[in-house]
Amino acid sequence: MERIMDHLAHERSKAQFSVEEMKIIWAGSLHAFQVSDRIARLVASDPGFRKDNRAVLSRKELFKSALRKAAYVWKRINELALSEEEASWLRFYVDELAYAYIHWGMFVPAIKGSATEEQQQKWLPLANNMQIIGTYAQTELGHGSNVRGLETTATFDQETDEFIIHSPTLTSSKWWPGGLGKVATHAVVYARLITDGQDYGVHGFLVQIRSLDDHFPLPGVTVGDIGMKFGSGAFNSIDNGFLRFNHVRIPRNQMLMKVSRVTRQGKYVESNVPKQLLYGAMVYVRQIIVADASIALSRAVCIATRYSAVRRQFGPPHEDENGKGVETQVIDYKTQQSRLFPLLASAYAFRFVGEWLKWLYTDLIQKLEANDFSTLPEAHACTAGLKSLTTSAAADGIKECWKLCGGHGYLSSSGLPELYAAFVPACTYEGDNIVLLLQVSRFLMKTISQLQTGKKPIGTTAYMAHVEHLIQCRCTVQKAEDWLNPSVILEAFEARAIRLSVACAENLTKFATPLQGFSELSPDLVEAAVAHCQLIVVSKFIEKLQQNIEGNGVKQQLETLCNIYCLNLIHKHLGDFLSTGSISPKQASLASDQLRSRYSKLRSNVIALVDAFNYTDHFLGSVLGRYDGNVYPKLYEEAWKDPLNDSIVPDGYHEYIQPLLKQQLQNARL
Ligand SMILES: CCCCCCCCCCCCCCC/C=C/C(=O)SCCNC(=O)CCNC(=O)[C@H](O)C(C)(C)COP(=O)(O)OP(=O)(O)OC[C@H]1O[C@@H](n2cnc3c(N)ncnc32)[C@H](O)[C@@H]1OP(=O)(O)O
Ligand SMILES: Cc1cc2nc3c(=O)[nH]c(=O)nc-3n(C[C@H](O)[C@H](O)[C@H](O)COP(=O)(O)OP(=O)(O)OC[C@H]3O[C@@H](n4cnc5c(N)ncnc54)[C@H](O)[C@@H]3O)c2cc1C
């Protein structure tokens, strides 16, 4: 036991940089670090937030436990008079998915984004004080990605000045909204607005669905839970629900009227803001999900890295600090490094691009307030594309981390199966990842077609202004070290991205209609979108390194991580880089040489680099990822806690095992 604890301490002593300074870089600022650190400790030390083994709880126990914790969170927020920032850290570190995620993450933002000032004044205080609990009811049984295809209707009745909300078919039943099944009292419902016999498409409506007195559904409302989901703990603590309306009436002023409104006379009036603002809550959440992706991936990487330093298999006998013969740490196998270190680098890359995206979003909101809608298309493309790229990579990465831990990774007590089950739906919710990449490609094709009209591309597409150069330039790498030059890397990624996009744009002209072309070429368009999004991540990582980064050795570590992130992408997408002529086979081979050498450089720092995430053992929830590396005794201890070990002889022995054994013994004696 002591030996293992010493082992991680030895790993930490090898770090070539200041972990404390890196913690601040990871958190984003000294202030963010201090607040999150304080709240993380507060949560970890409060028995009310203890994490039971969610995997062994029944659905009802799990759900009730999430309700208890959500209520306790609210109590502590009020008792401690926490600020909004502190409260969201508290919810984050409690780490139990519950209705509050949708209430704060979607219901409140939908009101803020789509309601008029007057409507906000009425509804936000109720939501902010939790006098009502809300959900976001957009998806239907028959329609998820295609929002324009939603069937629920909101028909204006001029006589009573009300909308009648109705589910005309089974497929129009709302299906999936979180917190809807058993908790929410209100919902932002997306429905087709019909007035004067005309269908004006999908709009948002605020609908009360349960009584605030006895919690029963209101007349005309049928509501319930959609059933168990993948994974034993994970999303099963949330009541994703179904909802059907039978001519439910709401006052006219519960239509969210920022984008358009219906007058007392039933006239549909558009405002001067683009109708896409109705989708504003999705843009907001997609931006948050990019930050979630870096957190989920970094959790998994932290577990797999610490465990890989503890775990020993095979190898020439080494001597430990006490001169005792020991096997090789699995982290020293080059295969383990080539699977693990790019994930560590990705966690940092996603953190920085998430930070930038948050800035982009804040900037968008400021512009929208000043009636400047010019950056909306780019913000949509960036949030959609980066949500897709980072969640797909993080979900795959978490799964890889569990395999990197061998058999023990498959145990619930490793924390990895639940983390995977809880995170993998991020590839689907808030927009299926492929559907979102197709949105990015649509934006890219539009930008390319506008190049011919002389319109200057801006923001993340600014590189397209250099199309002529990027189409024909040759990569200048001659030796492996040349790959450490950021401008060389950037140009290779820009060349690959633009060449894929231009090829798509050219191929699209070969089809009878753009629609047909988009449909036939969609796999290529998705690849072009991925290349563009990877370029954004690469360029934001490189930009980060150009900032003033303080702390002993911190910048050098980030440079190594950035190199690993970029070179590993080249390695993984070699087909693209070679087929577009962005690099040559010889340069590809030099990139692989450089990548190997970066792994060696990073090796002695990896434990400190995951320590910099500053995750408490409580938050990690993993025996394998414990800070002290005391894995084996704790695994043994956890095994004893399994309900099957409550009794020596299992329940069922007398009914099923004993008679079987007896019968077989008797048969043998005959
Ligand atoms: C235990 C441990 C836990 C650890 C894990 C941690 C995880 C924690 C997180 C937990 C929280 C979980 C919360 C989950 C909650 C989930 C909620 C939801 O899923 S809500 C439902 C979301 N639904 C979607 O995302 C649907 C996707 N579909 C669409 O967005 C649209 O239908 C579409 C964009 C695909 C198409 O729209 P449509 O109007 O038909 O499209 P066009 O392509 O014709 O576009 C027209 C025009 O508009 C532009 N556009 C589209 N969308 C937007 C937008 N959002 N903002 C701005 N502009 C937009 C588009 O580009 C077009 O522009 P144009 O100039 O004409 O080309
Ligand atoms: C855990 C979880 C929580 C959720 N929470 C909420 C919530 O709170 N509120 C809410 O309203 N919704 C919620 N959703 C629903 C979610 O937003 C939808 O599942 C999502 O938008 C995808 O839609 P879909 O399920 O209909 O998939 P589909 O659109 O049916 O996708 C199925 C397949 O078809 C492909 N596909 C679809 N369209 C195209 C296309 N045009 N081109 C190429 N391929 C295509 C997709 O790539 C996918 O492979 C949640 C979902 C999950 C899993």
TrEMBL record:
One GO MF term: FAD binding
Domain Acyl-CoA oxidase C-alpha1: 279-445
Keyword entries, A-Z: FAD, Fatty acid metabolism, Flavoprotein, Lipid metabolism, Oxidoreductase, Peroxisome
Subcellular location: Peroxisome
Active site: E430
Superkingdom in the source lineage: Eukaryota
Family matches, as Gene3D superfamilies: Acyl-CoA dehydrogenase/oxidase, N-terminal domain (1.10.540.10), Butyryl-CoA Dehydrogenase, subunit A, domain 2 (2.40.110.10), Butyryl-CoA Dehydrogenase, subunit A, domain 3 (1.20.140.10)
Main location: other
Gene Ontology cellular component list: peroxisome
InterPro entries per the UniProt record, alphabetical: ACOX_C_alpha1, Acyl-CoA_ox_N, Acyl-CoA_Oxase/DH_mid-dom_sf, Acyl-CoA_oxidase, Acyl-CoA_oxidase_C, AcylCo_DH-like_C, AcylCoA_DH/ox_N_sf, AcylCoA_DH/oxidase_NM_dom_sf
Signal sequence region: none
GO terms, biological process: fatty acid beta-oxidation using acyl-CoA oxidase; lipid homeostasis; long-chain fatty acid metabolic process
Domain Acyl-CoA oxidase C-terminal: from-to ranges: 485-662
Acyl-coenzyme A oxidase N-terminal domain sequence ranges: 18-133
Cofactor names: FAD
Residue numbers binding FAD: T139, G178
Xref: PANTHER family: ELECTRON TRANSPORT OXIDOREDUCTASE (PTHR10909), PEROXISOMAL ACYL-COENZYME A OXIDASE 1 (PTHR10909:SF250)
Family: Belongs to the acyl-CoA oxidase family.
This protein's name: Acyl-coenzyme A oxidase
